[in-house]
Amino acid sequence: MKTTKKSMTMKIVSIMLSIIMIAGILPIAVFATEPAQEMAYISASHEGQFIDDKNGSPMAYVGVALDDLTAIDLDTYGLSDYKYDKDGDGNYEITLLHLYIYVHEVICGKDWSDVSISGGAGSIYFAGGLFGFEDENLRYNYNGAYPADENGWGFTADRIVLSDGDFIEVAHFSDWNFFADSAYGFHYFTNENDEINISYSAETGTAFPLKLIRVGGGMGMGDTTTAEAGYTVYYGSSIGNAIDSVTTDDDGVASITFSDPGTYYVWCNGGKGDSDTIVSSPASATVTVTGEAVIPEQPDIPEEKTDIKVTIDEGMNFNASAYCCDDCYTELFYSGDEPVTSVNTTIEKWECEFHGKNPPAEYKVNNIAVSAPNNADYIVKGATINGNYYAFGEAEGSSETYTVGTYTVKMNKNQWGAAIYASNYEDGIPEDITIHIHIEAKRVAQDVSEVLDATLAQLAATVTEPAFGTNAGEWTVLCLARGGYFAKDNAYFTDYYNRIVATVNETAASVNMNGALHKNKSTENSRLIVALSAIGKDATAVGDWNLVEGYSANGFTWIKKQGINGSIWALIALDSGNYQTTDATIRQQCIDSILSLQHDDGGWSLMANKTYASDPDITGMALTALYPYRDQPAVAEACEKAFTCLSEMQHENGTFASGGSECSESCAWVIVASTTWGINPDTDSRFIKNGNSVVDALLTHYLEESDTFEHIVGAGSNGMATDQSCYALVAYDRLLNEQPALFDYSDVTFETVTPPATTDFSATLGLPEKVDRVPGTTFNGVVSVNGWDNEAGYKLIDLIVDVPAGLSVTNVTKGNRLAGGALSYNLADGKLRIVYFDANENSDLTTSGNSFPVELFTITFCVENVTVGDTLSIAVTNMSLKNSSDSSDDASVENIVTDEATENITIVEERTFSAGVLYQGDDVDLIPADKKAVVITVTQLEGTKKLTFNDGTTTVEFKYNAEISEKMGVTAYIALVDADMDMDAFENAENFTIDEADADSITFGDINGDGVINAQDALAVVDMWLRRGDAPTDDGILTANVNGDGRIDTYDVLGIVEAFVYNDREYAIVTKATTIFD
Amino acid sequence: MAKVLKKNKKICFIVGGAILVCAVLLCFFLILKDGGEQNKDTHTLTVETPQKISISETDTFVLDVTVSSFGDAIYPAASMSIAFDASRLEFLGIEEGNVFIKSDNTSGQTLPEWSYNTAACNESGRINVMYLDMTGGKNAFSKDLLAEDNNVVLRLKFRLRGSVRVGDVCDLVIEDAVFAASDETQSLAMTTNTLTVKNGKLVIGE
Fold this sequence. Notes:
The structure holds two protein chains of two kinds.
Chain A: H1 2-25, E1 39-46, E2 49-50, E3 62-65, H2 66-69, H3 96-107, E4 116-118, E5 125-128, E6 138-142, E7 166-172, E8 186-190, E9 199-203, E10 207-217, E11 223-227, E12 232-238, E13 241-247, E14 253-257, E15 262-268, E16 283-290, E17 307-310, E18 320-321, E19 342-343, E20 352-354, E21 363-365, E22 382-385, E23 388-391, E24 405-411, E25 433-439, H4 449-462, H5 474-482, H6 491-511, H7 522-534, H8 549-553, H9 555-559, H10 563-576, H11 586-596, H12 616-626, H13 633-649, E26 657-658, E27 661-662, H14 664-676, E28 688-689, E29 692-693, H15 694-699, E30 702-703, E31 708-709, H16 719-736, E32 763-766, E33 770-772, E34 778-785, E35 796-802, E36 807-814, E37 818-819, E38 822-828, E39 831-837, E40 846-847, E41 854-863, E42 871-882, E43 893-895, E44 902-908, E45 913-920, E46 931-938, E47 945-950, E48 955-960, H17 962-968, E49 971-978, E50 992-998, H18 1015-1025, H19 1034-1040, H20 1050-1061, H21 1068-1073
Parallel strand pairs in A: 1-7, 9-16, 17-25, 33-44
Antiparallel strand pairs in A: 1-2, 1-3, 4-5, 6-7, 8-10, 10-11, 10-14, 12-13, 12-15, 15-16, 18-19, 20-21, 22-23, 24-25, 26-27, 28-29, 30-31, 32-34, 34-41, 35-39, 35-42, 36-41, 37-40, 38-39, 42-43, 42-44, 45-46, 46-49, 47-48, 47-50, 48-49
Helix pairs in contact in A: 4-16, 5-7, 5-16, 7-10, 10-11, 10-12, 12-13, 12-14, 14-16, 18-20
Chain B: H1 2-41, E1 44-47, E2 53-54, E3 61-67, E4 74-75, E5 77-83, E6 89-96, E7 101-102, E8 109-110, H2 118-124, E9 126-132, E10 141-142, E11 152-160, E12 169-180, E13 188-189, E14 196-198, E15 200-205
Parallel strand pairs in B: 1-14, 2-15
Antiparallel strand pairs in B: 1-3, 3-11, 4-10, 5-9, 5-12, 6-11, 7-8, 12-13, 12-15
């Protein structure tokens, strides 16, 4: 027994040990809690809407496990240079670049080889293709802010190390100036502590406040945060599938009450900016709602269980009847009992109010069939009149005329006949029904002249000098011209035109694309053409340029760079003056493009993706542009659908919303479109909801105290809203007064433009302003022309230069872009005769390069015997290009206009300073608008001495420039100064100090200052333009801007390449410098 | 005592001598090492010319311009200025070499398109030729696409002019050349001595 007990004890011990051993070999993970995955979240949008992933789902904070990114080997993508070991531990970090690759390939289902990448480590640049975006016009935020480095500039994707919970937004836009717009930014939802989150929690039945903010700024400027008031915030089970929407209050807070528990999405779309283009990103967040479902309160059932109100216009014939039966939910009421009453009339307009059992709300129907919300018992569709069913608005009939009043008809069960019917009616129609028939006064179109006159007066008073641009520019001129505020010959318009001529001459020459005013934006031309035509100016001859030619010469490719906007405004512009295009297909290409972009709902938007919601602004613009082509069946059909779509877009308060905001501009474009088509937007039932017309809605944005309009109600005065609202009222007023539509300029008398004498080219003469009186002093005059045709077969150039007494000519050289001939010249009797041709082979004369003016000759004058204070005039005359020796053939010669090729020089004794502005930046490409390049020429100064300017407040050290010095024959310096500096100060000798030490010098094109201009310099300008690295220094700007416009762009790159391959060819900026001294 | 001192002095001489020998060897080694590395990092652009060209050569001929190696960077731009005797040689243009640049196409590589102007080159006696990748790196030169037997950057096409005589010597002098990287310190350039050049010499024979 003892033995047995011991044995048992041993067994128990053995079992215990076995259990312990088995437990010991179990993996610890069995007992461990599964760790949560580390995630990063990313959104991507285009034009204020989330783009779709490969499955068609919106890319709104898509979660990606960081573990999934570790498998991405940058080496295999050729991105070895972008690997980043931040902490120097020998291990490369997982960065936003990894996430981009994952999203692009796995989530978007695209090929990474489509992505165009450039830039070095720390400045990676996505030039196009990322997530399918067609270009580089995008920005990103990281955890709700601009990813600024210590200098305020942005870390690039390869330097942003990802951590758990990071969220990134990538927003792409069509507007290349989006970042300069005051409404630009990224939208976010925040909690009551203004903390940005992408997920929230809420309770059912309790109002949940979410604040909508826009974070703008960035890119070296610091972030700015703005609460978005009056913004529409949607919520639903998925993005794009809204249950309902709410509008943010003045503090940007959207208050949402959820009835049922679950996970919801809240979101808003990006919004428009000052230029009427989308400039901000969409926002989204998830809300997890907990608690019991809340059943909405049921409204009381009214005593009169059915109440039908029918409103028709006064004096219209009316034929209606009331009907009721047990089975009134059946499809139609063709059979039934006798009607108890009938009223004969022609129905144009209906308003019905239906009070039935358990309706969740009161429904009002105006002309069109409507559907009740999903949880309603009733669907109200139309009327049965004399046994025939009509959808609202279609009924016709005749006979008796009823006056304004209210008529009541008592009906019993199964009696004829209801004006409406209902489906899903569960309990049958009640026995006692009362139908009220109201006949109300016809709506009379309202007079807006008081508001219009006040707004026009305000515009004229505040925009005193309109100039080229969207603000205080063409739209204001359009208002005042088409509104008849000023006569066409008023100085207001003629002065504007003169400013425009100067702007066009400079801008078109700079862009150098056949009169285009912007290389990517055809709407710059279109907007100007619309305004100029409104004041009777011919857009084919503005200064030296034909603004219409660009549409044909640059082709539809240029027009479509701005998507549908380009096509719409090209049509409006071309039709404003019935301008003919060299390419006769341009108009039809625009029409076809617009039609192809029509959305399924009949409207249009800036988005090429037709599944997106239509936008009333763009729909209105498209309808306006297409009106002249309404005889084309496809156009007519499209426009009919579009008007229906517009009508359906109208809110119950009569207004329209664009990008989620009820705004004046949307109302304005509905008015412009409808008036263009002869539709009165104040009385046509399609644009009246609940008694509110779109004109009523527009006027709610009017600010009487300032005679301006606001973008959204309560937001305050806005320039763009005022311009658009004003010309909408002009359009409406013109309709009431039976004048041609806003853009129908058949009532405008166009000025006849006298064509240039015989050629499109004109000559200029560049001279220094002041010349030393000392005999033997030499200086140069540069003869240039502003155009050239290498296909014209020019064989000879000749010209005469009037040389005043006291001067001689020591040399004449040809410009290094001119080729094909040999030069001869002689000075006799004060006339310098120059001829350039190839006497041996009769070769064609050509010029190289595409920038103008092109220098033809440099004349070196020598001072002989002059008097201090003399003003000597030197003039180029009789300049011609000849292509044959047949003098009887008028076509053998082209005379170059020389009206502008006369200049004066002043003879001085002391050292003098002359100053001219070479260019001023325009904030578009790397040169700030508040900076200008100034050239100073100094007489009686040899060598390269140091020149310092100091007027007591500002000190500027000027850089010597050998190229301009040699070209002008006078010592020349250059500097980049503040744009508001007084130029007179630069001509005051007392403000200058000259040291014997050598000045620093600037050589155009030598970006790195190594004394050699080669591929390194060209690449440096490419990198500047691609925004790699820091913004250029003043010296960088001065050396890089070799074509002398207000920008550093690819034209400068090409300028450097051309100058190199043509062996030190002169830069356009040097030729330009000779012409800037008056 | 004097013996001990003498012995110590001897030891000092031996030790000092050993140290001196080691120092010399070390210096020698370092010089060799530097020279080797220098050699390893030298990138050379060469105008390859034949020993002699016959005056009866009435047809055109081409001269290869080769590069020995690239650094680790990518080079989105390149240029060279090559002076030649335009009175004896007529420059006819550039022909393709066999050094690729990166590309988006399926093969991932393509040949660069060089910018030049034949008339301007003959007028000035200087061949200025430039390649520029406007994307700033997507279509760049890279050592990955350079091989020992595929190192011809471009080919210069010439013809002898009628003025040439037997015994004339026509130098082809590389005045400037650069393979430019966005980070200029990574560029290979004559101006910074990071690119050496070997000029060409054409001797006109029978």
